[in-house]
Amino acid sequence: MNRIGRYEVIGRLGRGGMSTVYKAKAPVTGRLVALKILQPRNEIFVDLVGEARLKEIFIEEAKIMGNLSHDHVAKIIDCDEHEGQPFIVLEYFAHSIGAFIGESYRIEAPSRVISAAKTKSYLVQALKGLERLHFAGIVHRDIKPFNLMLTSDDRIKIIDFGLSRVRGEEKMAIPGIQVGSPYYAAPEQEKNPKQADGRADLFSLGVMGYRMLTGHLVDSRQGGVLPPSSLNPEIGPEWDECIMKTLARNPAQRYASALEMRLAVEALPLAAPQRCGDSDIRRSRDLWIVRGEMRREPGRVMYKDIREALGLDELLRPLRYAVQEFEVVGPLVAFEKNSGLHWQRRGAGFTLDWQQAKEYVSHLNDINWQGRNSWRLPTLEEVLTILNPPLHGVSCSSWPLLDDTIHWLWTSDHCTKKQTWMVDVVESFFDRLDRDGVASVCAVSSAE
Question: What range does the domain containing 162 cover?
């Protein structure tokens, strides 16, 4: 499929039981969008409710989103038909909470533990979005990591309203179809989706918060749930009280509203900051010293090879970290003595797609930026040398590169024709990103 309506299809993002989501380009502007078209995977859906009813359900989702305007809810751009099938055009996002925590198709597998500060930020933003939905009488009923997208400036956007209930009406129900996702759906939602109210969405968000803090899913069917602090020493009893209240099986024991839960999350304390140079932190790091010259030329590193090539764990986090000896050359450049590399101290200051990132580096060389014309995107090996462990709750103000407002950095190495490797410098892991997604740039130059 090359075109859907006026939109040029450039790739498939995902497929569910009822619809397929494509990455597409808008006419004239070339803006990237997510295009969701009604394409039932199985004829059982058509047999159950009929083709006309499926279209009604699909268009209802477009109406729900079209009537909402909020910073933390994805915006609908267009709605039309293609060859008799309705489609919705939405904002396109390259990042999601699901990818950020490393959740895979093996949903029970451990995920990355995320800092309390970042977890708190994302929970607060998601709750603001839920406040708006619940005020409109919308119960989402499918809150999960891959339905919470991340913008290039690190804002949450709630997507996928295909299972929502609006003002108590089951306009989008299909008989016999489970409402919600395993592990994330509230107990009452699994038993009787029609009775689930906004507190079901809070339960789902609580499961996600628990997973971010501990790296594990909640499965209360297997017995009691351990408080998150027993798995994460960064957090204390206040976090336990908040998260465990959200996970109560009885909705009456949870927070009464998204606003009430948001205020509770906003009041949660963060760990008292230590410093990166503290001896106990240094002793906890498995360090290695850079020896010899590293690869400078960009190349292809396949997904199956990256763990062995860089020394990463199953969630693509370094097993060891390089000893760093930085010398500040000036306000914009730092020199790392062990690797012999000059780095931009704060990066470009804005996010770019991969082609734009290369153009930005070319611009640096054209103007002989900081007296050098050998700037380039760093290779995977070079980026590895500047990573620190995800020192949750630790102040790294003395580190001369970047800051915690920057998440993702482009590398020069690709995985496939469409995907390039990036690194999250806050939580210290590698991942693939579509080249038309956006990340920050921190150019590097070898010592002469």
Answer: 95-266
What does the alpha-carbon distance between residue 114 and residue 213 come to, in Å, rounded to a whole number? 6
Exposure letters 278-289 (e unless 16+ CB within 10 A, then b):
eeeeeeeeeebe
Residue reference for tokens 């503290």: 278
Pair 342, 334: CB distance under 8 Å? yes
Neighbours of 384 (CB within 10 A): 25
CB neighbour list of residue 84: distance below 8 Å, 6 or more residues apart: none
Q: Is the same domain home to 17 and 108? A: no
Using alpha carbons, select from 352, 320, 343 the residue that is nearest to residue 436. Answer: 352
C-alpha closest to that of 22 among 100, 83, 87, 84:
87
Nearest C-alpha neighbor of 155 from the set 122, 115, 113? 122
Q: Is 423 helix (H, G, I), strand (E, B) or coil?
A: strand
C-alpha to C-alpha distance for 404 and 204, rounded to whole angstroms = 27
- H-type alpha helices, 116-232: 116-135, 187-191, 198-214
pLDDT digits (tens, 9 = 90+) for 31-79: 999 999 988 766 666 666 677 878 887 888 788 888 888 999 999 899 9
CATH of the domain at 43: 3.30.200.20
Please state the φ and ψ torsions of residue 330, each to the nearest 5 degrees. -175, -175
Q: What is the sign of the dihedral through the CA atoms of 158, 348, 407 and 94?
A: positive
Q: How many residues does the chain have?
A: 448
pTM (2 decimals)?
0.88
pLDDT tens per residue across span 209-245: 999 999 999 875 556 789 999 999 889 999 999 999 9
What is the spatial distance between Cα 244 and Cα 266, in angstroms, rounded to a whole number?
16
Last residue of a domain, one of 213, 247, 266: 266
Instruction: Tell me: do 143 and 193 sit in the same domain.
Output: yes
Angle between helices 198-214 and 258-266 (to 10 degrees): 30
- If asked whether residues 359 and 395 sit together in one domain, one would say yes
| Same domain for 60 and 139 | no
